[in-house]
Amino acid sequence: MSGTPGAAGDLLTGPARTGPDESDWAAAVAAVRRLPADARVLLICHVNPDGDALGSMLGFGLGLRRLGVRHLQATFPGPPEVPEPFRWLPGLDLLVPSTGAYPDPDLVVCFDAASESRLGELVDRLDTAGDALVLDHHASNTRFGRVHLVDPAAAATSVVVDELLTRLDVPLDAEIAQCLYVALTTDTGSFRFEATTPAVHQFAARLLATGIRPGDISRQVFDTRPFGAVRLFGEVLGRARLEPSAAAGHGLVWTYATQDDLARHDQRPYVLEALIDSVRCTAEADVACVLKQVGPAEWAVSMRSKGAVDVSAVAVALGGGGHRFAAGFTGAGSAEDVVRSIRAELDGALIAR
Asked: Boundaries of each DDH domain copy (predicted)?
């Protein structure tokens, strides 16, 4: 896509512009433009990548490939396993295990990671790389790296990617569009969340104009899961607990899934990422939480709010981060211990009305 700078940057979810200024965009463009012909570029997204992380990273990687970057890798920390719903994405050939990633790239670009901790064993590349560029949309971003394209008002990191590709004069084609569409639909909840503005739909329309098929994409990303995962969801939802008095009477609903649950149903951990959507629909609770066991006495926690509680404030207080209505952290102890820590933060995170 070619166009004037700022076309994609209009995709904001609020009236105040808190994102990158012109000097930030100029620095990011310069970091790419000055790469020598034999430069090694490493793209990194966060651990346990979701659709926005993978789609943004691969879409940008395809854009760099269009610019003629030849030595290009994409990776993420942890096991090199792409969740099943995303295994069809264009650009997967760019992926390498974290153990095979360039140890000292000329440029490292990080996607959808609010802090260095989300880069896991790849965090050292921030020090060994010639330059470090960060593309993100989390308000809790810690501004690691050198060049920061962080726009908390953007509906998804893919919005930031689209703006940078525009400024780099990379044409928008169907392959890039597929990646960015997956990213956009993932972080807007298939255009159901509050971040879905008229500008978001305009962005989606530009992506659809390349000829991609939204019905096929939605079925693959949102409406397909193994039968074992269906049975697993039923079991985990069956142990959900409702606490109507929590969050000053706004209500809390939560459940948990153990590693034994996954093993019993022969499922991979990524299938649990969609579970929060089934829990958050509980009418009697504003806050929904899903605890996913990742080790002995260790839990990855996903939180959602319908608007009464700023769950990012809860997550930050407990060592994590995210957005006002969608956030997470890593908790320690038993499931009850972790929920107790959440419960203790809810009243202080109420949003004034």
From this structure: 40-183
d(CA 90, CA 220): 14
Which tens digits make up the pLDDT trace of 175-209?
999 999 999 999 998 998 888 999 999 999 999 99
Q: Is residue 249 exposed (0-12), middle (13-18) or buried (19+ Cβ within 10 Å)?
A: exposed
Condensed to tens digits (0 to 9), the pLDDT of residues 84-93 reads 999 999 999 9
Decide whether 8-222 matches 227-349 in CATH topology.
no
Query: Could you tell me if 135 and 160 are in contact, meaning their C-beta atoms sit under 8 angstroms apart?
Result: yes
Q: How buried is residue 277: exposed, middle or buried, by Cβ count under 10 Å (0-12/13-18/19+)? A: middle
How many CB atoms within 10 Å of residue 104? 13
CB 302 within 8 A of CB 289: yes
Instruction: Report, at the CATH architecture level, how domain 227-349 is classified.
Output: Roll (3.10)
- φ/ψ of residue 47, rounded to 5: -60, 150
User: CA nearest 2: which of 185, 206, 157?
Assistant: 206
pTM confidence score = 0.88
Helix or strand (DSSP H, E) at 53: helix 51-66
User: How many angstroms separate the Cα of 168 from the Cα of each of 69, 141, 147, 314?
Assistant: 13, 24, 16, 38
- In the chain, domain spans: 8-222, 227-349
Could you tell me if 185 and 51 are in contact, meaning their C-beta atoms sit under 8 angstroms apart?
yes
How far is the C-alpha of 259 from the C-alpha of 23, rounded, in Å? 47
The pLDDT assigned to 73 comes to: 98
Query: Looking at domain 8-222, does it have CATH number 3.40.50.720?
Result: no
How far is it, in rounded angstroms, from Cα 6 to Cα 164? 9
Helix axes 51-66, 174-187, angle to 10 degrees: 160
